[in-house]
Amino acid sequence: MTPANAKISAMLDDFFTRAVVAAIGVALVAGPLGCFVIWRRMAYFGDTLSHAALLGVALSLLLQINTTLAVAGVSVIVAVLLLFLRRSDTLSSDALLGLLSHSALALGLVCLAFMTWVRVDLLGLLFGDILAVTRMDIAMIYGGGGLVLCVLALIWRRLFAATVSPDLAAGEGLEPDRTDLVFMVLTAVVIAISLKIIGALLITALLIIPAAAARRLSSTPEQMAVVAALTGSASAVGGLYASLHYDTPSGPSIVVAAMVLFAVSLVPGGVIVRRMVSKTRGDRP
Amino acid sequence: MKQPDLTPESGSGSIPAPLQEPVLARLERAGIRKGADWLVRGVDLTVSPGEIVTLIGPNGSGKSTTAKMALGILKPSEGRASRRPGLKVGYVPQKLAIDWTLPLSVQRFLRLTNPLTDAQCRDALEQTGAVRLMNSEMRTLSGGELQRVMLARAIARHPDLLVLDEPVQGVDYAGEIAIYDLISEIRGSLGCGILMISHDIHIVMAAADQIVCLNGHVCCRGTPSDVSKSDSYRALFGARAGTALAVYEHHHDHVHLPDGQVRHADGSLCSDCPGDHHDHAAEAHGDSANGHVTDTTGRDDAGKRKDLGNAG
């Protein structure tokens, strides 16, 4: 082991450092993906997948498999189910999301209650628990997150066209249905890796709020994705420190920090930041 | 789930003959059903290179649906839709719903489905008279400006097939004529086929090679006459809308009821449309134009025709 590695290894012995490293990793991925979530008006969709995550946790305990994998699996299944049901025109999209979202959440809670032999920290699942982050989780976050960002970069052009107009993308041969499916799977993966830090109830906030805060500071879509990733990371760090200091749950603390940054982006002072950002980055796509 | 379709597809089982001419897009007895209702049914349509085909018809008559079938956005529930392999399409959809949270400049929008240089962007916008909008945000555009930008994007691709869903909605009168001139010009310079949906029958008459009138099915089709292009026609029908409507107005002898049934002029009901039953050349209507406009009483579809006129 090289000295640098040894140093990092020692650092990761501290639970708080692990939590910070993990939260930054999550925020870096959630920012760009969250931009698409708000551009496509899919906030409720994110909520549905994250509520389904609880069912994934229950399954992972029952089958004794890795939690992140189980959550990602269940989220992907719910996403595909949604796509399928939406095409069959049985219910409105909105009602369908509400139905799946709360059914999955309730089913997950009921399953957990049945498993009397396992002790589950329900509050930790719902709102995040910084004490629970292991090295394995960090590996999952950076491995999975890196993969998500790579795939997102690959499909960026198609996904962006499908976001602006699905009909236009379909008419000009970009096959938006396939891109949509990939996007849903990516969202499911992000939700799975964020569960421990943010908790099932608030994951969507980490997708949406940094992206919304980035909106007023950006003039191109790519710039907005980068700013969202940075805003998310800043709220992750700020939130976790507050969580440590005031002994508050990590998820809500990070979300409150993100909300504060969003509020800051709204005030006139944001104009100055906006000018600085557009000056340094230029306006070219 | 959907009921099984009892109507056999026309031509099913037979091997399609090799295309004689390089047809860009073709619909054969194609129809789309949503739930129990047919949005449009039994449409035959071909678009060839250098040809302008225009779809007209009242609101809800299936014009956009037909265009989407031709493009492959919607799969026909019956019949066939085919396109030339490797066909490059430029599409101007009827609506564009961009969320305000999406920062999108006009330039970036032009590059949405294909890479373009700045010069190419500028050139396309110049053609549609929107070059001053080059650095604007998409969400600040007015309806007419948006149409010009969308058209610029579609032609900048140099498509083989240009599909325009009401390309002049919201465009002012002078701009409208300029855009229709541009469309004819593009057909000449790019040699592309154009499938257009329009309410503006006056200008449709001047530009289209083939007009297909839809009303849940193809109710008639024809080539616009020489009359409509002649100077005397322009002099007579210079003012738009009402008078222009007269040229291609015709008597619908049946109505589509909400439950999908068809009521004929004699009051009889049936479940399906009889099909092309009043094919006609446009000039026949041009001759009796005035009579059609004034004589709207006692017709079962007067309301629908009024829609058509108002929109134009």
Tell me what the structure shows.
The complex is a heterodimer of chains A (285) and B (312). With 285 residues, chain A is mainly alpha-helical. Chain A has helices at 3-11, 15-39, 43-63, 67-87, 93-114, 122-127, 135-164, 166-171, 176-198, 203-215, 221-246, 250-266, 269-281. The relative contact order of chain A is 0.16. By secondary structure, chain B is of the alpha/beta class. In chain B, the strands form 3 sheets. In chain B, strands 5-6-7-3-8-9 form a 6-stranded mixed β-sheet, sandwiched between helices. In chain B, strands 2-1-4 form a 3-stranded antiparallel β-sheet, covered by helices on one side. In chain B, helix 3 (118-127) crosses helix 4. Chain B is globular and about 60 Å long. Chain B starts with 24 loop residues before the first strand and ends with a helix. Classes of the chains: A mainly alpha (285), B alpha/beta (312). The A-B interface holds A 38-41, 88-89, 160-161, 163-165, 167-174, 211-212, 215, 218-221, 223-224, 283, 285 and B 1, 34-35, 68, 71-73, 89-91, 93, 96-99, 101-105, 107-109, 111-113, 135, 157, 163.
Instruction: Supply the helix-strand structural class of chain A.
Output: mainly alpha
N-end to C-end Cα span of chain A:
43 Å
Structural class of chain B: alpha/beta
> Could you name the CATH class of the domain at 25-88 and 159-311 in chain B?
Alpha Beta
The tally of beta strands of chain B, per DSSP, is 12
**N-to-C order of helices and strands of chain B:** EEEHEEHHHEHEHEEHHHEEEHHH
Average pLDDT of chain A, rounded to a whole number, is: 86
